[in-house]
Amino acid sequence: MANILRVAACHVSPVFLSASRTTDKTISLIKQAASRKANLVVFPETYIAAFPVWSSVRAPTENHSLFQRMVKESIYADGDEMEAIREAARSNGILVSIGFSEKSRQSNGCLYNSNLTIGAQGEVLVHHRKLVPTFFEKLTWSPGDGHGLRIAATEFGRIGTLICDENTNALARYALIAQAEQVHISTWPAVWPTRTPHKVSQLGGEDQSSTNVDGKRVGQASEWATPPTFVTSKRLISTTR
To answer: Domain CN hydrolase spans what residues (predicted)?
Structure first.
């Protein structure tokens, strides 16, 4: 890991439930990050096209129309939106990590909470699907698998990614540490308005916020971490009221 790595960790909101407009925003941010000499730009959990925070604040029977919109605005890992993002990575010579709600070509309603790590030549380095959707996320996403528990070997180091609560999964963490991971990307959703920070038994009794989880993760592995967080937009808040 001899080369200097400059990371742009994007704490941003998508264009709510609009895959095309969020893709345009993503490409603009990639260009901005590259212009500021970043080597790696990281986007939050399911940045395209939304995180289903509505499932945490409303009854499932009230969310059918939102799930339909979520399916419509989710994207394929090899679809036009991701092709455009890969081209932006290539043309700007920058590594990209992006979370997205992934459609399946084998099912009309199956979605995955996914993340792509894209190389500076536009190639897909790692395609990861969240192993186990957390709590209410099961109303939206299907379980993933271990195929994506791989590091991306780059000129700036060996980069791994885990999504949200996977960062508290000891075996998932070990799977990346065992591959000599040097840079860890820890993606998170919005901080939802359903609770205040509190002490928990996990992680040594610490508040299970992304900051504390990431801090403990880095201490265990002796590596660098970047935690981009999904920012809740006014449009999302008004929709879930």
So the answer is: 5-241
CATH domain 7-240 topology:
Nitrilase/N-carbamoyl-D-aminoacid amidohydrolase (3.60.110)
As a whole number of angstroms, the distance between CA 165 and CA 171 comes to: 12
Of 201, 165, 191, 167, the closest CA to residue 181 belongs to: 167
- Whole-structure pTM value: 0.85
Per-residue pLDDT of the chain (241 residues; tens, 9 = 90+): 568 999 999 999 999 999 999 999 999 999 999 999 999 999 999 999 999 999 988 999 999 999 999 999 999 999 999 999 999 999 999 999 999 999 999 998 899 999 999 999 999 999 999 999 999 999 999 999 999 999 999 999 999 999 999 999 999 999 999 999 999 999 998 765 555 555 555 555 544 555 455 554 455 555 566 677 767 666 666 665 5
Q: In a 10 Å sphere around its CB, with 0-12 CB exposed, 13-18 middle and 19+ buried, how is residue 158 labelled?
A: middle
What is the domain partition of the chain in residue ranges? 7-240
